[in-house]
Amino acid sequence: MEIRKSPIASAAGGFEPQRKNNFALQIAPKGGVDMGVIEFAMSKFPFPKSELEKGETQLLNEVRKWAKAPFKFEGGTLTLKDYVDKKVSDAIQKWYKLAADVQSGKIGYASDYKTQATLILFGPNGNNEREWTLYGLWCRGYSNGEGDMSSGDQVEITATLEWDWIEQTKPKIGIEQPKMMAS
User: Fold this and answer.
1) Residue 162 in contact with residue 142, Cβ under 8 Å?
2) Could you tell me if 140 and 99 are in contact, meaning their C-beta atoms sit under 8 angstroms apart?
3) Of 45, 174, 32, which Cα lies nearest the Cα of 117?
4) pLDDT above 70: residue 134
5) pLDDT tens, residue by residue, 105-127
6) What 3 state SS string does the chain have?
7) Does the pLDDT of residue 173 top 90, yes or no?
8) What is the pLDDT of residues 21-58, one digit of tens each?
């Protein structure tokens, strides 16, 4: 194969790279938290990951494996750029406080702190190429970053987010169910 004939990002089209920086996380409002500030301050967010438990059976000298419940949808860390005039830290802390109020020692109702979000991956031309809906999204913890006297870099805030499950909504991934055999 000649390198020059590679179809990757060629003038003829095909194999256009999906860029890491072409994404958005749109979070549904909850409890008066300014989710717009969080969305615009976003720097990094993990793309969806799910995993099944694995079952195993040994028969003589062989092992057979199968998918077993439960489905696992791994949460992730949202990294945000902090801004002096946009109260990014306040928005994250307010969302976290809906789940757990450190001062009173009370835990909130899930219906008060869980929300829904849409993760969108855009193509380089701005078209919405892939989309996932995250259900039961909530802030499990946060860090206001760190100070460093030898650096003028922007402060980054991190929030640990959890979600109950994820559904890819664009393109819709469907599996044709097998037809039952007639007896």
Assistant:
1) no
2) yes
3) 45
4) yes
5) 999 999 999 999 999 999 999 99
6) CCHHHCCCCCCCCCCCCCCCCCEEEEECCCCCCCHHHHHHHEEECCCCCEEEEEEEEEECCEEEEEEEEEEEECCEEEEEECCCCCCHHHHHHHHHHHHEECCCCEECCHHHHCEEEEEEEECCCCCEEEEEEEEEEEEEEEECCCCCCCCCCCCEEEEEEECCEEEEEECECCCCCCCCCCC
7) no
8) 999 999 999 999 999 999 999 999 999 888 888 899 99
Q: Which domains does the chain have, with CATH numbers?
A: 18-170 (2.30.110)
Tokens encoding 33: 């938290």
Query: With contact defined as beta carbons under 8 Å apart, do 34 and 142 qualify?
Result: no
- Tokens 């390198």 found at: 3
Closest CA to 118 of 167, 78, 158: 167
Q: With CA atoms as reference, report the closest residue to 75 among 45, 39, 42, 96.
A: 45
Residue 99 main-chain phi, psi, to 5 deg: -85, -40
pTM for this model (two decimals): 0.82
Count the residues in the chain: 183
In this structure, the number of other CB atoms found within 10 A of the CB of residue 126 comes to: 8
If one compares 151 and 177, the residue with the highest pLDDT of the two is: 151
Are 134 and 117 in contact by the 8 Å Cβ rule? The answer is yes
Tell me, what amino acid is at 131?
Answer: E
